[in-house]
Every structure is written in C-alpha cells, then in structure tokens.
Write a structure and sequence with these properties.
- The complex is a heterodimer of chains A (157) and B (543).
- Chain A has helices at residues 13-26, 41-49, 55-69, 78-89, 94-107, 111-116, 140-143.
- By secondary structure, chain A is an all-alpha fold.
- The longest helix of chain A has 15 residues, at 55-69.
- Helices cover 23% and strands 17% of the residues of chain B.
- Chain B has 543 residues and is an alpha/beta fold.
- The chains are: A mainly alpha (157), B alpha/beta (543).
Chain lengths: 157, 543
C-alpha cells in the first residue's frame, strides 16, 4: 500500500512503512477467523490518524525497532522481521505499551472485526444493552447473617 | 508570596459575595445547594468546563480509545487546558482526577458505599491513626439526604452496614454477578449488591440506565449521578452563581487574619480579585493543599491555615490491586454498570490476618473489546502474531475482575507539596506528590489478592493474575485533616479552619482516615453536614 498520504501525521514515510509492517505482524489477517490485519488500509489509516498524544511514544518505539533490526526493519525478510517485531513487542516499556494501544484501540473498533466477533459495530449510546437481572435468591444466604459492623458508639444496635 | 492584606487595586475587583466556593465537584456542589436556602449571595469558581452529555465517549465508536485520551483519568495524560499538571514521579500511585463542573464525579465508577461506623473510631478500636471528631451517626441524616439528592441504587438489609434504605432498585446482577454470587455462597463469604449512584429507574428528571456499560468516563444517558446533573441544577435555580474556567491562584487574607477573597484567572486569562465574606474550599485532597500552600503570606508563611504544619500531609490514596481471571462462558463484559457487588467479609479488623483495618472487595463486570485487548496485551496474556486471534476469543467477555479497596492509613511523609519547577498554564506552582505504601497496607493488599484469587477460582476462573501496578482510583484524602486539637489538625469538627475563622474546607482533604471504600458518598455527606453547621451557627460563625 502507499503510505505517502500519511506524511502529515507526524511520522516520516519511512516510519509509516515500518509501522505498517509491524502492524501486519502484530495483528495479522486471518482467513480462519475472517478478519483483516492491523495493516489493512482502513484500519491502518485509523491507527495513523489516531496517534495523537502517542505520536512521540510511537516514534520512540519505532526507533527501538530499528535498533533491534539493525537498521531498515521494512527491508528485512519475513522471518527476520517477525523476530524483530516480537522482540520489540515483548518489551515492558511505556513506549511499547503506547504502540500496542494505538494499534489495538483502532483494530477492535473496525466494523469488520466487530462483526467477525459477533458484535454490533456501534457506539454504546443511545441503544445501550440488555442485561439479565440475575437470580436474587442467591442473596438469601447472606440476608440471614447477623450484623457484621462494629459500632463503638453503640448508637445503631 | 501573597500580600497579607486585601490585594492591590491594579487588578479588577468583583463585587463582594457572601460565600465563595472554590471547586464545583462532589463537595462544592453539595455545599452550594445546601447553603442556597440562606439566600446569601453564593458564587462558585470552577477551573474547568461544563461537560455536555454529547461530549462523553459513549456517543462514538472511539469510546474505548478516549479513555486513554481526553477522558483519561490522569490529568498529565489528559492534558486538557483546564487541567493542571501533577508531579507524581515520586509516588507509588499515579494520580487521577478530573477538572470540570462535577469534577471527579464525571469520571467516577459511581460505586457509592458509605464509610462504616468503625471507620470513625480507628484509634479506639484498633489502636492506629486517630479517631474522627465526629461519628457515623452524626453523618447519618446527611447520608440519607445525599442519597435522596443523588438517587442511589441498592438493596436494604446489608448486614455489613447499619440499616438504611437506598432510594432506587439495585443494578442487575447479570451473568457476571450471578457467577460471583454463586462462588461467594460456596465460600460462605459476605456479598451484597453494590450501592451505586446510577438511576436504575427514572429519577428526578434523569433517564433510566440503559446499560451503556461505560460509566467511568461520563454517562451520555445521564443515568449516572455526577453532580452537574444532580446538585447543580437545583443550586443554580436557587440563584447560586457558577463561573467556569476560573482558576483560583490564592486565597487572600486581611489585617485580622481573615480570608478576604481570592485572586483568580478568569476565562479570558485575566487576573481578578473576588472578595468574599466566607471562603469554602472544595478543590479535592490535592488541589486544596496546593491552594493553601500557594496562599502563603507574611502572616501565614508556611501556607494558609497551616500552623499545625499538616497541610498537605497524611495523603491517602487507597491502594487498589486488581485480580483478574477468565471463565469459559460469555459474561456481561462492558454491558451494564461496571460495579456489580461488594464484599465486606474482610472489612473489619481481625488481628489474626497480620494487619489492622481491612478492605472492600469490589466485583466488576468486565470490559470492552479494545480495552480487553490493550490490557491483556500489556499483561502478557494476549500474544502478538499468529496466535493473537485464537487467544483473544478466550478472553473477550469472559473476564472476572475483583478490586481490593485497601484502607490507607495516614502517614505524614505521604504528602502534597509545591513543585519547585512545574507550573500550570497560568504559572501557578503545581503539586508534587511524595507517597509510599505502608507496611500494614502491603500486608492487607497481599491478603486481599489471595482472597480475591480464591473467589475467582471458586467461580471457575483460570488464567488468574493480580495487578500490583497501582494507579490511584482518584481518592484524594487526608491532607487538611479535621480534629479538635489545632496542633494536630487543620479544620475543626465542622470544617472550619482553626487558623482562619471564615475559611472552610469541605472536600476529602478533611478525612482523618480513609476507610476502605470509595469516598464520594461520605465526602458529600460531610459537605452537607458542614453546610448545616454554617447555617445553624451563622450568628456566631466567626467566634
């Protein structure tokens, strides 16, 4: 895919290529589950357009990825790129957490992904949701307990 | 340093008001409404905005993402222009708050337990910290009044509390609550449907909850009782004035050592002076000490109302580990108010546990699709790569999550001070937090994690894991404590500063101890109690 149209988002075109390849490895398309990957054009556009507060963190993470890859991550063969991506995503660092968050928050609102999960792709409001009332007879065992609270002032017992 | 007299005439001076309230959150709204019947001229200055229901995240498909952006609980992450930064680098818990009309009630889960009677008598009963100068029974009528104003869903008869009757039916147990309840009955442990500030039926013009499942970052349905839609409409109809985007820099004093008003920045950024006969601070347990410390003057060199040296000290934040597990059936997930029930089985002290005081177990319904992925990936439960989709389907809507709401004992080294470098957008020194978790609390946390893990196992969960990475639940308490001894407290038993007799504090700052519950309900009852004292003592208020 062309990534040139995202160049106004705060990432360079090279960074966008790296992020796109990383997204494809992190959350790959799956025929088995009927879902696109996070590098899907629509989803990736959402990711890039939603970087916002996380832009610097993502840049930092991509810098770490280049360090792991020994240079050009986008140019690595598939297996080496996957190994580098997994090494990066396995790190416990704020920038990596931010990178994961920006991918997942967009992936799991895509209408195709939601439908594949059996979810209606819509905001919670105004329709809301149905909720089963539950079995209140379960509370009978608790109702019969004596008072549990301590009252030094002895004004309530 | 502030002038020790009414400010100079260079800055615009507003008309004098009888009562000036700083902050339009849980306590500021309650005190404003209660005092309105006096027909005094009452003004509230709030640094944030009104938040429209249409602004809340649940209106859009990006509702989960906005919890990490403009509705994040951290002011440092959220970084709205109405927020102020907080240096919490040296705190074991990161600070949560919200600035706007409604304040923390905009971003709260609406879990609404009262403090227990024993919480007011911790020294007498358990030999730690200090007793409060008031007791549960003093507040009981104000709890009831606050419940009526708020609309509290729940069920009468909880053996963990003195008798009282919530105003509305409880939230549904749902599949998740039913699963928890069966587990608790198997263990023989106490549980009860949570009292929550959610309209489960239409109430006072508010619509009934439709289970948007996104209570914390605001309720588009207006079923959650944030004070912008409970107290404030009543207060405004009673002619209380509320000015938004007005950030108070300092409280000024006159030659008699009385509060004379405040210097603030208005919505246009202009510095103004607002004179007042009575000043009431309702700026939360961090904002209030920040303001008092920023109000130092020649007469009050260590900060206003700080002859005790306790302003900013004894900060309590409620350490709140969470234990998560997953079951083999689909549960409620993000559908419905997040908090479903509580357990007080381990609330009262049992010396055999190796710590004093106790905790509430708070049972949550679950979370949404994006948040499940984000938190599970961060925790290492959800892999990246080829196995991602398979594992995700074992997690989504199968989560059980129990929070351990630990009582945090007051320790003077846990404190709010002024950061020497960091400032807000008006150049006002920002707060710095120094906070560690005490040994008693650590033992309590581990006990609670172990019990919550037992519960999840009894509920048939697997993949059980505890999170000890602690973010503050936004409970900011204890930094201007109440008491009878002016050398050991900042305000007296009815919220008046010992040092400044027309200065009152009504927010969580005045708490002596923290209990192990969400504080909003008790904060509001305290504010109503203090307002009632002001009304009853008007003729001798400054004596």
């Amino acid at each position: 895919m062309s990534t040139g149209e995202y160049s106004s988002t705060g990432l360079t075109r090279a960074e966008l290529r790296e992020l796109n390849r990383l997204a494809a490895i992190a959350v790959p398309a799956s025929a088995e589950y009927g879902v696109p990957g996070a590098d899907d054009a629509v989803i990736f556009a959402d990711i890039v357009g939603s970087l916002g507060r996380d832009t610097n963190a993502v840049r930092e993470a991509l810098g770490l990825l280049r360090d792991i890859a020994g240079g050009d991550f986008a140019g690595l063969d598939r297996a080496t790129a996957a190994a580098a991506a997994m090494a990066l995503l396995g790190r416990d660092e704020p920038a990596i957490a931010a990178l994961g968050r920006v991918m997942l928050q967009c992936y799991y609102r895509d209408h195709r992904v939601m439908r594949a999960l059996g979810r209606e792709p819509r905001p919670p409001y105004p329709k809301g949701h149905d909720l089963e009332p539950g079995d209140w007879s379960l509370l009978d065992a608790v109702r019969s307990r004596p008072p549990m609270w301590r009252d030094r002032d002895q004004r309530g017992k | 340093m502030a002038a020790d007299d009414t400010p100079d005439t260079a800055r615009p001076r507003d008309e004098t008001v009888d009562v000036l309230i700083i902050g339009a959150g849980a306590s500021g709204a309650a005190v404003a409404w209660s005092l309105a019947e006096t027909r005094m001229r009452i003004l509230c200055l709030e640094q944030g905005d009104w938040i429209k229901p249409s602004d809340f995240p649940s209106n859009g498909r990006d509702w989960e993402a906005r919890r990490y952006a403009d509705f994040d609980i951290s002011p440092n992450r959220r970084a709205r222009d109405t927020d102020y930064p907080i240096n919490d680098d040296n705190s074991a818990m990161k600070i949560a708050n919200f600035n706007g009309v409604g304040s923390g009630t905009i971003l709260f889960t609406a879990h609404y337990p009262r403090l227990h009677p024993s919480d007011f008598r911790v020294k007498t009963l358990d030999g730690v910290a200090d007793d409060w100068p008031i007791d549960y029974w003093t507040l009981e009528p104000y709890f009831a009044e606050n419940d009526r104003m708020t609309g509290v869903a729940g069920l009468a008869g909880d053996p963990a509390y003195p008798p009282h009757r919530p105003t509305l039916p409880p939230v549904p147990l749902g599949r998740t609550g039913t699963r928890y309840a069966r587990a608790m009955n198997r263990l023989g442990w106490h549980w009860w449907p949570s009292e929550v500030a959610v309209a489960t039926t239409e109430y006072e013009g508010r619509a009934k909850c439709v289970n948007l499942g996104h209570c914390t970052p605001g309720c588009a349905q207006c079923a959650k009782a944030s004070v912008d839609i409970t107290y404030w409409p009543h207060a405004l109809r009673a002619r209380v004035e509320l000015r938004t985007r007005c950030r108070v820099r300092e409280i000024t004093t006159d030659g008699r050592g009385m509060a004379s008003g405040v210097v603030y920045y208005d919505a246009q950024g202009m510095e103004r002076f607002q004179p007042a006969e009575i000043v009431i601070v309702a700026a939360n347990g961090i904002g209030t000490p920040r303001l008092l410390l920023n109000s130092a003057s020649a007469r009050f060199p260590n900060g206003l109302a700080n002859s005790s040296g306790l302003v900013g000290k004894n900060l309590m934040l409620h350490p709140w580990p969470q234990v998560i597990g997953y079951v083999d059936e689909e549960l409620d997930g993000d559908r419905g108010p997040q908090t479903v029930m509580w357990s007080k089985e381990f609330y009262e002290t049992d010396p055999a546990r190796g710590f004093v005081r106790g905790y509430t177990l708070q049972f949550s319904r679950g979370t949404g699709p994006a948040n499940e992925a984000i938190t599970s990936a961060a925790a290492g439960r959800l892999p990246w790569g080829k196995d991602h989709h398979r594992v995700y389907r074992t997690l989504l809507y199968r989560r059980l999550m129990i929070g351990v709401a630990c009582e945090d004992l007051p320790e003077e080294h846990n404190r709010v001070t002024l950061d020497p470098v960091l400032k807000d957008s008006h150049g006002i020194p920002a707060p710095r937090i120094d906070y560690t978790i005490g040994e008693n609390t650590r033992r309590m946390m581990e006990h609670g994690i172990a019990r919550a893990s037992e519960i999840l196992a009894a509920a048939g969960a697997n993949n059980i894991a505890a999170s000890r990475v602690l973010n503050s639940p936004g409970h900011l308490l204890g930094t201007a404590r109440m008491g009878l001894d002016p050398e050991r407290s900042v305000v007296n038993a009815w919220g008046r500063c010992h040092d400044v007799k027309n200065l009152f504090i009504v927010d969580g700052s005045i708490w002596v101890t923290s209990g192990g519950v969400n504080p909003t309900c008790t904060i509001q009852a305290l504010a109503l109690y203090i307002a009632d004292n002001i009304k009853q003592r008007l003729a001798t208020l400054f004596d």
